[in-house]
Amino acid sequence: MVPAYNEEKRLPTMMKDTMPYLQQKVKEGRLFKKVEIIIVNDGSTKDKTEEMIKKYTEDSTDQINIRGVSLLQNQGKGAAVKYGCLFARGEHIIFADADGATDINSLENVLVNCKKNTKNGLSCAIGSRYEEGSDADRTALRRFLSWGMNTLVKFVLNNDIKDT
């Protein structure tokens, strides 16, 4: 599931990287037999995100079904994620940003670890660029701005969330 707000420029790159990976995994039968990608338009107004989502839905196959859903107005990433989850039909719900910041090649490892750490048939994995062992490649400016934002969130919300 991919929340998208004015992501006309970044969505194609993410989809270009994601589709071949998923197609290969379905073909190998290693992760899943079928995949559903839900792209949630979070009320985009400044670009052609909505039209792009419609185009991607036309690329659906029997193995990879691409669906688009839309919020009428921008409600924020959290609302878009929640809305997308309400439409999900699969056994697993995987959420990734449209900016492609998370490498799709990590997916198999995440799912394997979720299966190992299942309790009462449920599991959850949350990726973070701040965890030890993360190999996220970011510029010094991006690291500084991210650190500033996370410090502010920790202060305002009085919590210890590492990656908002």
Protein model, in words:
The chain has 164 residues and is of the alpha/beta class. It has two domains: 2-127; 138-164. The chain has five helices and three strands; from the N terminus they run βαβαβααα. The chain has helices spanning 11-28, 49-57, 77-87, 107-116, 140-157; strands at 2-4, 35-42, 64-71. Strands 1-2-3 form a three-stranded parallel sheet, sandwiched between helices. Strand 1, helix 1 and strand 2 (35-42) form a beta-alpha-beta unit. It is globular and about 45 Å long.
Count of helical segments? 5
Number of domains: 2
Distance between the termini: 17 Å
The biggest sheet amounts to:
3 strands, parallel
Beta-strand residue fraction:
5-15%
The average pLDDT value, as a whole number, equals 87
Shape: globular
Give the % helix. Answer: 40-55%
Query: Are there runs of 5+ residues with pLDDT below 50, and where?
Result: none
Strand order of the largest sheet: 1-2-3
* Radius of gyration, taken over Cα atoms and rounded to an integer in Å: 17 Å
Please provide the ordered H/E string of secondary-structure elements: EHEHEHHH
